[in-house]
Write a structure and sequence with these properties.
Elements (H helix, E strand, L loop, with lengths): L1 E6 L7 H17 L4 E3 L17 H17 L6 E9 L8 E9 L2 E7 L24 E3 L2 E7 L19 H7 L5 E5 L7 H16 L3 E5 L1 E4 L2 E4 L3 E3 L5 E4 L6 E6 L4 E2 L8 H19 L4 E6 L3 H14 L4 E5 L7 H14 L2 E4 L3 H11 L10 H22 L1 E5 L3 H6 L12 E2 L6 H11 L8 H5 L19 H13 L4 H8 L3 H13 L1 H4 L28
Parallel strand pairs: 1-2, 2-3, 7-8, 8-9, 16-17, 16-19, 17-18, 19-20
Antiparallel strand pairs: 1-14, 3-4, 4-5, 6-7, 9-12, 10-11, 12-13, 14-15
Helix pairs in contact: 1-2, 5-6, 5-11, 6-7, 6-11, 8-9, 13-15, 14-15
């Protein structure tokens, strides 16, 4: 049997576009000699559809689209496996199931629903789906095949030390005689996950001595980024075919000779993170119906990285940058921003805010009489800039990309309705120290981001001589504390003990994190590139009193 893995980038709810894409990739798979082509989990409607699943019209349209695909591929001598939504019978607890269909000869020949419904981190499938009531092997030309959906392959007791579910669908299907495991997935990317996924699937192949094929969705849907990286493994666990990462692809594998196409994948994790952020930004902007973006350039490293990613995602002709110097902005920052814009080939406009800032102060002077300038005046500058960026956005239909990093969002070192204003937090899941690593990676072949930006001390430049270290620990000390507390939920005592840190210092950082939850819940969507990102995968109350 020759199979094809169709690694596509669906848009949630775009039944017409997704259907056309599935039909087109099926044609290409047939022309390549495939007997069977696999599409990702919920490829017909896009993943994750969230509360759209509560709409009966959405579910009905999904079924209609599958019938359209079956009819359109009826004359092709090829089987099509694709993910979609099916109604659940009355009394199932939920009204829909996450299912996979085998389409042949113009109709749905076999349906298998997902058994294991993830309920951790960004996954909330138990909110929507009823689990499968049983697992059955699918027969392809007389060969018994295990057809599984994403999480159904993530519960191998020989691989995981702590399993989340009592049953293993793969194990059950192997007992029924399956000689091939097919897995259709929508598995989001984060740093180092590709290696874990590869090891897990290879272990399943080796333990059961059968080939394993996994097709994964690619593309960005809101905060989630899907890397693709689809693979086929031989019975010995060796990779015999693999697709590119972060791009649509179609690959073939011959399961008789255990040979296939091996596309080059990005090995370096910094480069992979850049590719992921680029894809997430591109798809967010375009799937929301826009083509243009605007970025506020401060002369600092964060805005430089966001502008560079925006250019990679959208092209220089679609990115505008605004420099908005205040009385405390250095000439060096303005010059560095202009040099960056020249390197990227993008438009750079300077809109000074000193006069606007002065007018704000004059208007507030009677109210603030007798008080010394403080963070209030600093925030006013940031909010003026946010207003100007949004004015440009409204006038030119360009989405504002925010430039705050994860270190700032963690500690609240950011201004609501100021530098947090925007449609997408491109690097909101990237700690400051990692920002420097990504910039060095981008500069590997040529200096895109001026060296002066990388070498200057971080500063918001909202008061004379200001440095980030006036408020925060040096990022080399701060980020490991934040990573331990925010991503792994370690206690201050454990963090201090493991890293030989002063406990009071760690507690002070933790208090900053806890006090800033109200800011994060008003932030733009954050592109997820780590195991634990702010947003849908990290849910905490705002009105709470935490003992640190």
């Amino acid at each position: 049997m020759k199979i094809a893995l169709a690694q596509i980038d669906p848009t949630v709810g775009d039944f017409r576009g997704n259907t056309a894409k599935i039909v087109d990739f099926t044609r290409r798979a047939r022309e390549g000699g495939a007997d069977l082509v696999l599409f990702p989990e919920l490829a017909v409607c896009g993943y994750p559809p969230a509360d759209l699943l509560e709409k009966s019209s959405f579910v009905a349209r999904c079924g209609e689209a599958v019938c359209e695909i079956a009819r359109a591929t009826a004359r092709d001598s090829i089987g099509v496996i694709t993910g979609y939504v099916t109604p659940a019978e009355h009394g199932a607890g939920k009204h829909v199931r996450n299912s996979a269909a085998l389409l042949r000869h113009g109709h749905v020949e076999f349906v298998q629903s997902k058994l294991l419904l993830p309920f951790y981190d960004v996954f909330d499938e138990q909110r929507y789906f009823a689990p499968a009531t049983r697992q059955r092997v699918c027969h392809l030309d007389g060969h018994p095949v295990a057809l599984t959906i994403c999480e159904d392959a993530w519960n191998d007791k020989s691989f995981w030390e702590n399993r989340l579910y009592a049953v293993d669908p793969v194990e059950e299907l192997i007992r029924q005689g399956a000689g091939l495991i097919l897995n259709i997935s929508a598995s989001p990317w984060w740093r180092d996950k590709r290696g874990l996924r590869r090891e897990m699937l290879a272990a399943i192949a080796r333990r059961n001595r059968v080939p394993v094929a996994m097709v994964n969705q690619v593309g960005g849907n809101d905060s989630l980024i899907f890397d693709g990286s689809s693979m086929v493994f031989g019975p010995d666990g060796e990779v015999i075919a693999q697709a590119r990462s972060f791009d649509e692809d179609l690959i073939f594998a011959d399961l008789d000779t255990f040979s296939g196409e091996l596309r080059q994948q990005t090995g370096d994790e910094d480069q992979a993170m850049i590719d992921a952020l680029t894809l997430g930004t591109r798809d967010y902007v375009r799937k929301c119906g826009f083509s243009q973006a605007v970025v506020g350039l401060s002369g600092g490293i964060d805005s430089a990285l966001v502008a560079t990613i925006a250019v990679r995602a959208l092209g220089p002709e679609n990115v505008t940058t605004l420099g908005m110097p205040s009385p405390y902005s250095s000439q060096g920052s303005i010059d560095d921003s202009r040099r960056l814009a020249e390197n990227l080939g993008i438009r750079y406009e300077v809109v000074p805010i000193s006069d606007i800032f002065r007018q704000f102060n004059q208007a507030l002077a009677p109210l603030f009489a007798g008080r010394q300038p403080d963070i209030t005046e600093e925030n006013i500058q940031s909010r003026i800039r946010g207003t100007l960026l949004m004015a440009f956005s409204n006038q030119f239909n360009a989405l504002v990309l925010t430039t705050g990093n994860k270190s700032e969002m963690s500690t609240g070192y950011c201004t609501l309705y100021g530098d947090m204003v925007g449609a997408l937090a491109v690097i909101g899941d990237v700690f400051k120290t990692r920002v420097y690593g990504l910039c060095r990676c981008l500069n590997a072949e040529r200096e895109v981001i001026p060296r002066a930006i990388l070498e200057k001390a971080p500063s918001a430049e909202l008061r004379p001589g200001q440095k980030d270290t006036d408020t925060l620990l040096p990022y080399e000390q701060l980020d490991p504390i934040l990573e331990a507390y925010v991503e792994r939920y370690e206690t201050p005592e454990a963090i201090a003990a493991e890293r030989s840190l002063d406990l009071d210092t760690v507690r002070a950082v933790v208090r900053m994190v806890e006090r800033s939850e109200y800011k994060r819940q008003q932030a733009a969507p954050v592109l997820k590139v780590t195991p634990k990102a702010f947003g849908m995968g990290r849910r905490f109350p705002i009105a709470v009193r935490v003992q640190v």
